[in-house]
Amino acid sequence: MIRSKIEIHDKFSVIIDVTYDRISKSKKSKYTTLTYLFLPDSLNINGKTYPATKFYNDVRLFLKYDTPNYTLGEISRGERLLLKNLTKNTEIFIKNRTNQNFPLFKNQVKMFAATLSSLLRDETDTLIKRKKISNDEIIDFIEKINLIVSEFRAIVGMLKESSLKDTHMNVVFYADEHISNEIELQLMKLFNNIKNRKIETNSLEMIVGLIESEQKYKKQKNYVSPKDKNVNPEDLLYKRNRLKKYIESVFFLYQDIRKDGAMFEQTVLAFAAGLAMVFSTAVAFYYQQVYGNFTLPFFIALVVGYMLKDRIKGSVSQLFVSKSNSFFYDYKIKVTNALDNKIGLIKEKFSFVPLKILGPKVKKHRQKDMVIGISERSLNEQIIEYKKKVTIYPKKFGSDLSDENILGLTDITRLNFHRFIQYMDDPKKDYILVKKGEVYMKAANKVYNINIIQKYYTEDGIEFSRYRVIMNRNGIKRIEKVVLD
After folding, report:
1. What is the SS3 assignment for 157?
2. Residue 256 and residue 52: Cα distance in Å, rounded?
3. How far, in Å, CA of 373 to CA of 386, rounded?
4. Along the 485 residues of the chain, how does pLDDT read in single tens digits?
5. Integer Cα distance of 467 and 244 in angstroms
6. Burial class (CB in 10 A: 0-12, 13-18, 19+), 442
7. How far is CA 471 from CA 9, 42, 424, 428, in A?
8. Which residues contact residue 422 at a Cβ distance below 8 angstroms, ignoring those fewer than 6 apart?
9. Who contacts 191 (Cβ-Cβ below 8 Å, separation ≥6)?
10. In degrees rounded to 5, what are phi and psi of residue 64?
11. Which of 12, 180, 442, 471 could form a disulfide with 476 if both were Cys (CB 3.0 to 4.6 A apart)?
12. Cα separation, 24 vs 401, whole angstroms
C-alpha cells in the first residue's frame, strides 16, 4: 500500500512525501514509482541545459520510518504501547543504568515525543480543515493534551528523583521542552484559524490559557521561553529547530549512496582497453615481421597503431557504457537503521522522455482540465521522468525501535525549482479593462504551471495521482490536487 502527498516546503521547493508499507514480515515488499514533471518549453529546461548532475543537485532525499499508527485519543486513554513502553523502559534503565539500556531508553523517549508532536500536527490540521468546529471538539482536544502531558511529566518527575547523570536526564528535558514547543505552536495555529469563526468564548480562552501555561512552565524549568525578556527571538527559534531535529532523528534512517552498475562499468572499460591493446600489439607484431626492428616504417606503424589504440579504447568504452545505461539506474541507496542493519534498497534514475512513449493513462491524466483543448502534440512541454525502485527487507525492519506499530518506510523527496525561474517573465503583467466607457490598466499575476503526475506500481496494481504547482518568478504560489477519474 502507498500513501502520498505533495506540499510546499518553501517559496521555491516542494516536498513529495510517499510512504511504502511493509506488506509482509517474511517477504520483501517491492514498489516502483515514476514521477513525471511536465515543464513549459519557455522555461528552457531540457536535456542540454539541465543534465542529471543539476537535477540531483536540486533533489534532497530523506528516508525515515513511518510514524507509528496511533491517535491522541488512544494515547490519552492509555491504550496501545507508546506510554506503557516508555514507562517500562524508564523503570528498567533506572534500575540498570548500563550502556546497553541507555540507547533503548533514549530512543523510546525521542519516539514518544516525535510521535506525539506528529499527532498534534495532524489533529490540529484536521480541526482547521473542518467547516464547522464545535465547542466540545476543542475542549476534548485540550483535555487529551493535558492528560497525555501530565502522564509524561510524571515520568520526568520520577527520573529527576532517581539521581541520573546529566547526560541521561538531558534526553528527557529535551523531549519535554520540544513537546511544550509543539503544543504552543499548534494551539497558536488553531487559535489564529478559528478566532474569527463562530466559536464559544470559553474554547478560545482555554486555548490561550494552555499556551500561557506552557510558556510559564518553560520559564519555570529554565527552558527557552518567550516569557523570558532576556531571550533573543533568533536564539529561541534556532534552539526550537535544533530540538525538533534531535527528537525526530529517531525515525530517520541512514543512506549509503553509490553509483549503480559501477562494477559493470569498470569491467567494460577494462575490456575496451584490452581490445584496443590486442589491436595495437597485433599491428606491432605484423610490421615487425615485415620491416624488421629499428626501421622507419616499423616506427611509423607503431605510432599509428598506438594512436588508433586510444581511439578504439575511447569509442568502444563510450558505446558499451551508453548501451549499458538502459539496464542500470543512476544511483542505488542502501538504507540502514541505527543498528547498521540493512532494511531497504532504493534505486533512482533521471531522464528526459518524449510524450509519445508515455502510457495512454498518463497522457489522459495530463490532458485533464486543460485550459485550452489542444492535442497532445501541441502541448510543447519538456517531460522529466524520475524513477525509483524501492525494496523493503522485512527481517530487520524496525529492529532498532521497540514498537511493533512501525510498519512503513517514508520517502521524503524535496524538489527545488529555483533553477526554473531563470527564463520566467516578470511576475506581474498588465491587461486592459473597459468599464463605463473608460479604459483601465490592470495588473495580474503571470504564472507558470508545472504539472506533476505520479505512477505507482504496487503489489495491488497501478495507482496514479496528479498535482499542479503554480508558480511565478517570486516563487511557488500554491499546489492544486487534480482529481483523476
Report:
1. helix
2. 19
3. 27
4. 788 889 999 999 999 999 888 777 778 888 999 999 999 999 999 989 999 999 999 999 999 988 877 888 777 676 656 777 788 778 888 888 777 778 888 888 898 899 899 999 989 988 888 878 888 888 888 988 998 888 888 888 877 777 777 788 888 899 999 999 999 999 999 888 887 777 766 778 888 899 999 988 888 888 888 877 787 888 888 988 999 999 998 889 999 988 876 676 667 667 767 777 777 777 777 777 777 777 777 777 777 777 777 777 767 666 666 666 667 888 999 999 888 889 899 999 999 999 888 888 988 888 877 655 555 555 678 999 999 999 988 888 877 777 777 888 899 999 999 999 999 988 888 777 788 777 778 777 889 999 999 999 887 788 899 999 999 999 999 999 988 87
5. 29
6. exposed
7. 13, 14, 10, 12
8. 43, 44
9. 204, 207, 208, 211
10. -150, 160
11. 471
12. 18
Q: Which residue is associated with the grid cell 534531535?
A: 246
Angle between helical axes of 201-220 and 166-194 (0-180°, round to 10): 160
CATH class in words for 72-250: mainly alpha
DSSP per position, 331-350? EEEEEE-TT--EEEEEEEEE
Domain range summary for the chain, segments of one domain joined by +:
2-67+329-482, 72-250, 261-327
